[in-house]
UniProtKB/TrEMBL annotation:
Signal peptide: none annotated. InterPro entries: CxC2_KDZ-assoc, KDZ. Residues 40-135 form the CxC2-like cysteine cluster KDZ transposase-associated domain. It holds the Pfam family KDZ. This is CxC2-like cysteine cluster KDZ transposase-associated domain-containing protein. It comes from Mycena pura. Residues 785-812 are annotated as: Disordered. Residues 792-810 have a biased composition (Basic residues). Transmembrane segments: none annotated.
């Protein structure tokens, strides 16, 4: 009955009632205030009727099941609190403080927060969903709450953030047993989330860390260094809107954006230096060509973000024009990040050594120009910032450096500098896919609402990152151990292979330097010693003219000379066939002329060869001969006769051809090696030797010619192997002494190319790792060397889904032709190729050494980061427990505050316990000695 429904729902008044309509003959969805004449939502007495209640008033209430046009009766008792407090006590957030007529339940606000942050839902969509839940047929009959909803959600998020960061519990005040604030290196009132793994002196690591030196380098600085990356995003822009400036951001200066007024004053006062407008001359065109026209009708073209190595955003700032000429934005953002991090900007009396800071930025090569004077001009009073910027090191992220010129690739390549670990520098990029989902709604807001929404979205991103950080770093540590072991195997093999040269190589400096006005690095080829395309093509042509398949120092009987002659003619036939195939694909007059010349020469030689054959094998009938197609003529040497089951083959001639064919096969392996190296040089030198469309076309033809000659050498090798099989020297499926050869067997790691993303993981192959060997750590490593590589938490499949059988990973291995200790010295005509090969071996060794040490540093760093995560979680739990104890001892009767603090402390304790388990887990590559450390200094020492 109606009375029973009202009694049972006095504490859940937003449940819809299905009321029978006697006139329309169906159940109608009805609000609780319309069930009976005087029914309403009563406040102040836990849903019960108030004898002194104020007159009932119409009220719009939004809950998760829709918008309710209802009636509310406030408590009118003498000691009754204000109306807005009565609403909050009932779990309803009022739209206004004075005379509230609209409210939102905490449930719907919390639901909106999750839908917004996880589903990128806009306010317009969410409020219309609530309207349709109330009346799907005529949604316009339901009150519109969208005009209040934006402001209310921003205030609700702000209050929740202040609670979660401890500001309602006095987090900025001193703890009872300490002489300073709980987090002294953070600014007072800061609401953002700080990365748990990055160094925060006094919180997750000591204020001072002992550094160990080898030469001029701090070999342990990566364990306490701060790694940050800077990047811009143009999808979080802002259109010009009618904004009178009255709607201010409720988080202004308290989270990731700097104070808006302060930033605008900097931007207006600063005049961009012409030097700041010129990026790297070889940089990607999208950066060089940015202009105001691209951002027409936009008040803000995008945002710049600083993020740490773990993808936690530390600061954001608006781009007023574009990313290229944005010195104000980037430097303001750097200052904002450092204000929120571990610097001593907030304590002038603290004298602690600054940690090493490494910054990665897409246009770092131009950003560092005039950097210190620019910072001094922008922030003349921040001497702490001047010191940090002056000592800051820089790199270009791994994926962006490929678009830079040679000087940048030498100066700012992340993988070739000590104490940088294996940080790719692209962590800021991981933020954008998440933030881009908010772009369509952000660009339509006013400036204050946009900043608040971005701040809350980034805080949600950061907090989720912190919650999963131990698991993420554990997976990265396991990967580092696996790749480290593989690179260790590579480096040992290369060191043994070049044992005579390693002593001299080891004495060379690993730092780049200027030699005769040219940048020099041991990790790159010196372009002056690399053969040009013309050098290589001349070498290949000379090799073709002087091709020899036997050792001429050995005297042969006339039959052996004749057989060798036949082998040479067979090679000429294969060469004509190769040219014919090339001409069929790309008909060229020069190619056809070459084919005609080769046919004329081969026809004349075949006439002489067949005349000699009649003298050696007089009983053998000559094969048919077409003077127009000499490449089709059968050359009747022993291997061909055996194919025809001829009885004219003498045993002595068979032995002679076997000997000659073995020599030919060995020579062809060397020829394929040289042709492959030549092709590598041609591919890598196109950008230096040719300009314009005509030059590029010639370069393409040259590359195709080099590929044809390489394939010809492979075909000739296959012909020699087939002959040995016919002669009975080896079986068709034999792998020794001459295995089958394909183009895949010529694959090699090209050292003339600059380092590309993922190179450190491409270490498999016969030259790198013996077939069938199991890579494992051999330096007092983890308990289990065969632990499988785990996926990152974001990509891990659900446990309740059966794992699908995956195809084995197709690995690109180095070809077997490179298993020899060294190539035979080429002829004088191939001197440039020989010089390239010699330098290639040196560059390969230095790169392998660098990769080894970077992955060793990465493995060490992940232990240090996991330690810091544990200590950060321990500190958070301790601070919350102390706050609960302080409130309890103060007898302030704030029961809710005490319970909330205890709940937060328990959550951080659970995270700490999980992180400790991850730190000591064998399955994530824990080092059995390092995990026994008693404190961070002991860990660094170990």
């Amino acid at each position: 009955c109606r009375q029973c429904f009202l009694r049972q729902h006095r504490r859940s008044p937003t449940h819809w009632a299905a009321v029978w309509s006697p006139t329309e003959k169906f159940f109608r969805k009805t609000d609780i205030s319309r069930i009976r004449t005087n029914s309403a939502i009563y406040l102040g007495h836990d849903g019960d009727f108030c004898e002194h209640s104020a007159p009932r008033q119409h009220f719009t209430l939004a809950d998760t099941n829709g918008v309710h046009p209802t009636v509310i009766a406030f408590c009118g008792c003498p000691d009754a609190p204000a109306h807005w407090k009565q609403l909050l006590t009932a779990g309803i957030f009022p739209a206004t403080i004075q005379s509230p007529q609209t409210g939102f339940t905490f449930r719907v606000l919390e639901q909106w927060r999750e839908y917004r942050h996880q589903g990128h839902l806009s306010i317009w969509d969410f409020t219309h969903i609530l309207q349709r839940l109330a009346d799907p047929w005529i949604p316009t009959s339901v009150p519109d709450i969208s005009r209040y909803f934006d402001n209310i959600t921003r205030i609700f998020h702000l209050l929740n953030t202040r609670l979660a960061r401890g500001h309602a519990h006095g987090v900025d005040s001193r703890l009872l047993d300490e002489c300073d604030r709980a987090y002294p290196h953070r600014p007072s009132g800061y609401l953002g989330t700080v990365c748990a793994a990055c160094p925060e002196p006094g919180v997750n690591m000591p204020t001072f860390v002992v550094c160990y030196f080898v030469g001029a380098h701090r070999v342990a600085s990566h364990l306490s260094a701060e790694y940050i990356t800077l990047d811009g995003n143009f999808k979080a822009n802002l259109f010009y809107k009618r904004d009178n400036g009255t709607d201010k951001a409720v988080t202004d200066g308290q989270m990731y954006f700097p104070p808006q007024q302060e930033f605008e004053e900097f931007a207006k006062a600063y005049v961009v230096n012409p030097v700041d407008k010129v990026p790297c001359q070889a940089h990607i065109g999208s950066i060089r060509n940015q202009s105001k026209f691209k951002y027409k009708n936009t008040r803000v073209s995008g945002v710049v973000a600083f993020a740490c190595a773990h993808g936690v955003a530390g600061g954001l700032v608006d781009m007023l024009i574009s990313e290229a000429p944005a010195p104000v934005a980037s430097n303001t953002e750097l200052r904002q990040l450092l204000l929120h991090a571990d610097v001593d900007a907030h304590q002038a009396d603290v004298d602690a050594p600054a940690d090493a800071l490494t910054c990665l930025y897409t246009t770092l090569c131009s950003w560092v120009v005039n950097q210190v004077p620019r910072v001094i001009e922008l922030f003349p009073e921040d001497e702490w910032l001047h010191q940090i910027v002056a000592a800051m090191e820089g790199q270009v992220p791994g994926s962006h450096i490929v678009g830079h010129g040679r000087p940048c690739k030498i100066k700012y390549q992340p993988a070739y500098f000590p104490c940088r670990a294996h940080f790719h520098g692209e962590s800021a990029e991981t933020i954008w896919p998440y933030l881009n989902g908010f772009g369509p709604s952000l660009r339509q807001m006013n400036a204050g609402a946009r900043h608040d929404n971005i701040n809350f979205a980034m805080d949600n991103w950061n907090f989720n990152k912190v919650l999963r950080m131990a698991d993420q770093i554990g997976g990265e540590r396991e990967e580092a151990l696996k790749v480290l072991a593989a690179n260790l195997t590579v480096f040992k093999q290369l060191t043994e292979k070049h044992a005579n040269e390693v002593v001299a190589w080891s004495k060379e400096s690993r730092d780049w330097e200027m030699k005769n006005g040219v940048l020099y690095s041991v990790y790159q080829h010196n372009l002056k010693t690399v053969a040009t395309i013309d050098d290589v093509l001349d070498s290949l042509r000379n090799s073709e003219v002087e091709a020899n398949v036997s050792n001429e120092s050995v005297e042969r009987p006339p039959t052996a000379e004749w057989i060798r002659w036949g082998i040479d003619l067979r090679r000429s036939q294969l060469k004509i066939e190769a040219y014919l195939a090339a001409h069929t694909e790309h008909p060229l007059q020069d190619t056809w002329k070459t084919i005609c010349d080769l046919r004329d020469k081969l026809g004349d030689e075949l006439e002489n060869f067949r005349s000699r054959q009649s003298m050696i094998l007089p009983a053998l009938d000559l094969s048919p001969h077409d003077v127009d197609l000499p490449e089709k003529t059968l050359i009747q040497i022993p291997s061909q006769l055996l194919r025809q089951c001829s009885s004219s083959v003498q045993a002595s001639m068979t032995v002679q051809e076997i000997e000659l064919r073995c020599g030919q096969a060995n020579t062809q392996i060397i020829a394929v090696q040289e042709a492959t190296i030549s092709l590598s040089i041609i591919r890598g030198s196109r950008a230096y030797d040719y300009r314009g469309q005509g030059g590029k076309t010639r370069a393409q033809r040259s590359q195709e010619f080099a590929e044809m000659l390489r394939n010809l050498e492979i075909t000739v090798y296959g012909d020699a192997r087939d002959a040995l099989i016919v002669l009975g020297y080896m079986l068709p499926n034999a792998k020794t002494p001459f295995p089958p050869m394909t183009i895949a067997d010529t694959v090699r790691k090209e050292t003339h190319l600059f380092r590309a993303r993922g190179d450190s993981r491409v270490v498999n192959g016969s030259i790198w790792q013996p077939a069938g060997s199991i890579v494992s750590a051999c330096y007092n490593g983890p308990h289990k060397n065969s632990a499988p590589l785990r996926r990152s938490p974001a990509k891990r499949q659900k446990k309740n889904l059966p794992a699908k059988p995956s195809k084995p990973r197709k690995e690109r291995t180095e070809g077997w032709i490179w298993k020899e200790d060294a190539l035979l010295l080429p002829k004088e005509a191939n001197a440039n190729v020989a010089a390239f090969k010699k330098e290639s071996d040196r560059v390969q060794w230095f790169r392998a050494e660098s990769e080894l040490f970077r992955w060793l540093e990465q493995y060490e760093l992940k232990h240090a980061e996991l330690w810091r995560v544990i200590e950060r979680f321990r500190r958070e739990a301790y601070v919350w427990e102390k706050r609960a104890q302080q409130i309890e001892e103060s007898a302030s009767h704030r029961t809710g505050a005490i319970m909330y603090a205890r709940m937060q402390g328990a959550m951080w304790r659970r995270l700490r316990d999980a992180a400790e388990t991850e730190f000591k887990s064998d399955g994530t590559g824990a080092h059995r000695n390092w995990i026994q450390a008693k404190d961070f200094a002991d860990l660094v020492h170990r």
